[in-house]
Amino acid sequence: MKQELKISCQKECLSEIRAFVNESLAHLDISESLQYKIVLAVDEACSNAIIHGHNCDETQDINIELEVIDNAVLEVKIFDIGVYSDDYEDLGAIGIEEHIQNKNKGGLGLKLIFSIMDKVKFYTKNKLNICELEKELI
Amino acid sequence: MLKISGELDASTAIKLDDEISGALKSNQINILVDCGGLNYISSAGFGVFVSNIKDLQTRAGKFVLYNLSDNVFETFRILGLNDLLTIANTEKEAKAFFK
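Above: the input entities. Below: the structure tokens describing the complete assembly.
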């Protein structure tokens, strides 16, 4: 069954997103470690949408859809209408040493998402930004 | 010594950043971080450490973190930060890195 959450673009809502993902995964027979990583990846994707896409504009929302297929694959979709910089996806390719040298506070979220999830896809459809994440559960 | 507890994410990381900035301003360059109560950390939390490593290294100081849960340590490992920060198991081991 598809689980959905619509949430305001505020950093303070991230804990609610994590609770939503945890609750959605609770019935699955997966390790606590895997669940933690999935929650982290979804948190990072939503955090990027809230902060980078919407500049924390609380009047705007993002939508999260989460579906487990055959108890084997988790599919997550995050929808938003924010505006991202052209090099947004490139941030994930920056090495940790470069982040340290540049004293970057941000930019590590994409690296975590790509490291944790099996499939990561960003695209735009009908002016809607869609971030698709997929993870095998077995 | 800094003690971190709860969840460190984009909404809470600024507090840790302020504490570390305050420590650096008062010339504390060896910063011990007790992560015993930390049950979640996202990239915003890691960003606080990453953005301060260079300044500490320049001043011959460092972070030493200890008491990390398995999940928190694993996330440091995913980012490769376990090789760039000093991580100890116990407070005693952590303090030994400053002797």
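Note for the figure: Chain B has one domain: 2-96.
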